[in-house]
Amino acid sequence: MPTAGAAATDLTGQVAWVTGGTAGIGLAIARTLLSAGAHVVVAGRDASRGQLALERLAHPGASLVVGDAADPQQARAMAQQVIALHGRLDIVVASGGAVDEKPGLFHEVSDAHFTEVYRHQFLNRIFPVRAALPHLRERGGCVLLIGTDAGRHATVGETLHGSLGAATIMLTKTLAREFSRWDIRVNSLALTLTAGTEAFDKVMGRGDWLAALYEKAVRRFPRGRPPLADEVAQAALFLVSPQSSQVTGQTISVNGGLSFGGW
After folding, report:
1. Does position 167 have pLDDT exceeding 50, yes or no?
2. End-to-end Cα, the chain, rounded Å
3. Mean of the pLDDT values across residues 15-37?
4. Would you say the C-alpha torsion 81, 127, 99, 205 has a positive or negative sign?
5. Closest CA relative to residue 36, chosen from 259, 244, 184
6. What is the average pLDDT across 146-164?
7. What average pLDDT does the chain have?
8. What CA–CA distance (Å, rounded) separates 71 from 93?
């Protein structure tokens, strides 16, 4: 039977693993899932940053695993730690992995930067899902990939960022079809500039050309501001909760109306 109200987003007893969960959007999602009753294991590459995240979450249901989600062995080790902590895994949110991403024309981007962005914005989505799959298959569950609206709208200077975003959208669709046999739903969020994060504030405070670019983009939002990280987290909660039990293989843009259309 369909559920309504608070019960529709009640995650009591469920265990969520949020990679890239020690800062930014991942941290906001972790906080929201905790408020819905889930046990949340945040993951990041930096142990000290992870401990700071736990202090900021200040919740008994939060715990930390440390590792590089873009490395398959480390991803498997982290998944095993989640199972050791809680004995089950129900939700995987693959987020984070930001690098110093600056807009640049295709021919101006260095070879090394292509490799770095691919590793930290795509492989770190792939390997946590692979590591979690044997555990998700036991009772079904949800996978949520955090991507970018640049994958839906061609933007000059975002060749790499956009192409990886498009790959994440197709990954979402294909995994949803494959994983349906195990009652695992797979969805993704496509994001644009998101306020309420340290990374956003850092750029806006730089006073350089990139800050000016951000300021120009902010002025284009129909509602006068970009989405907040906490607003993105509410969309994430919807997609991993019983409220979206019939939603899979979908990518929802949380972009404040900055753009429309796409695929």
Report:
1. yes
2. 31
3. 97
4. negative
5. 244
6. 87
7. 91
8. 16
What residues contact residue 77 under an 8 Å CB cut-off, 6+ apart? 67
**Are 89 and 102 in a shared domain?**
yes
Distance in angstroms (rounded) separating the CA atoms of residues 70 and 122: 8
Task: Tell me the pTM.
Answer: 0.93
Answer for the pair 76, 56: CB distance below 8 angstroms, yes or no: no
Residue 221 pLDDT class (50, 70, 90 cuts):
very high
* Containing structural domain, residue 44: 11-192+228-251
User: Same structural domain for residues 47 and 177?
Assistant: yes
The pair of three-digit structure tokens given for residue 88, joined into one six-digit string:
């089950």
Give the CA dihedral 174, 178, 184, 190, nearest 10 degrees: 0
Do residues 189 and 236 make contact, with C-beta atoms less than 8 angstroms apart? yes
Determine the pLDDT at residue 1: 43
Mean pLDDT over 27-53 rounds to 97
Asked if residue 4 is part of any domain, the answer here is no
- 169 CA to centre of own chain: 13
Which CATH number is 247's domain given? 3.40.50.720
Structural tokens at position 80 = 């095993």
Eight-class DSSP state of 108: G
Q: Are 40 and 46 in contact (CB under 8 A)?
A: no
